[in-house]
Write a structure and sequence with these properties.
Blueprint: E1 2-3, E2 12-14, E3 17-22, E4 25-30, H1 36-41, H2 46-68, H3 70-73, H4 81-92, H5 106-109, H6 113-119, H7 130-133, E5 139-141, E6 146-152, H8 154-157, E7 166-177, E8 182-187, E9 191-194, E10 200-204, E11 215-228, E12 231-234, E13 242-248
Antiparallel strand pairs: 1-4, 2-3, 3-4, 5-6, 6-10, 7-8, 7-9, 7-11, 11-12, 11-13
Helix pairs in contact: 2-4, 4-6
Amino acid sequence: MAKQKGIIKLQGRVGDLSFYKTQDGYLAREKGGVDGDRIRRDPAFARTRENGQEFGMAARAGKLVRDAFRPLLMRASDRRVASRLTRVMYEIRKLDTTNSRGERKVATAIADPAAKAKLKGFNFNERAVMSSILFNPFQLDTSTGEVTMNGFNPANQIAPPPGATHVSLSTAWGKIDFDGGVHNIEPSNVINLPLGSSAQNINLTVGQAPTGSGVDVFLLLIEFFQEVNGNQYVLNNGAFNVLSIIEVA
């Protein structure tokens, strides 16, 4: 593909060239590829159809996760989170050893501990990765959803962005049924601290376990604020907030 330059940016098709806009700017590419009807019918493209079908199922699985935690994603995510999460789900579906090629599902594969491990640690905001922001160990009780941090000291165990004066910590416990396409989440309490506060123990607890069946997914959210005249404001529209999957059970 080629990047368009100049004052006038084109969109659409001119001859054998297609002009379009992406997150990376205005691009152009030459028309090509195999006719779509042939891909749908020709036996030679059976593998292509199978890959496409499994990719679609992976995309729907990723969307289910995003929908489940959408209130949190609105406060901490990047522009490519959908494609990145789909890529993870596409890898997870390979661990389905029950269904035939073209029918392998995340819903089946996720029972494998190796599949859960692929989803654990996913950062919804690549601009703020958990391991580069939080330097205090934490413990998660998967039976209650409680997250604890002993001796948490924001002054030297958080790497805040410039201009931040306060940090908030919270968690969420989600129950995601990939087979049924449903979800339920329970948020925790929110602890807000000045970045210069002294060390203290942190306890984040959910009111109750989420109802329903499916996989248990636990998230940790770190948000940064700037205090001006006694009021706290979200820093740079949440561009530096952290949201990460800390466990899948």
